[in-house]
């Protein structure tokens, strides 16, 4: 999931360089959502691992 967030971030940067503002903002929004989902799942996994041990 973090891989896809990075891909969308790179697409957003490339689109912004070439002047495609709509595509850049959409890609950046998707990348941000995917990053926060990844972060939430990562923290949940860490908490579950602490409680299992």
UniProtKB/TrEMBL annotation:
Keyword Cytoplasm: no
Any GO CC annotation of this UniProt entry: plasma membrane
Keywords carried by this UniProt record: Cell membrane, Membrane, Transmembrane, Transmembrane helix
TM stretches of this protein: 5-24, 30-51
InterPro entries assigned: DUF1328
Top-rank lineage group of the source organism: Bacteria
NCBIfam families with a match to the protein in the record: PRK13682.1-1 (NF010226), PRK13682.1-3 (NF010228), PRK13682.1-4 (NF010229)
Family: Belongs to the UPF0391 family.
HAMAP family documented for this protein: UPF0391 (MF_01361)
UniProt name for this protein: UPF0391 membrane protein ASD8599_00311
Lineage: Bacteria, Pseudomonadati, Pseudomonadota, Alphaproteobacteria, Rhodobacterales
């Amino acid at each position: 999931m973090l891989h896809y967030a990075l891909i969308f971030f790179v697409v957003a940067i490339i689109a912004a360089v070439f002047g495609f503002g709509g595509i850049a903002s959409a890609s950046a929004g998707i990348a941000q959502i995917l990053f926060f989902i990844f972060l939430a799942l990562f923290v949940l996994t860490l908490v579950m691992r602490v409680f299992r041990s």
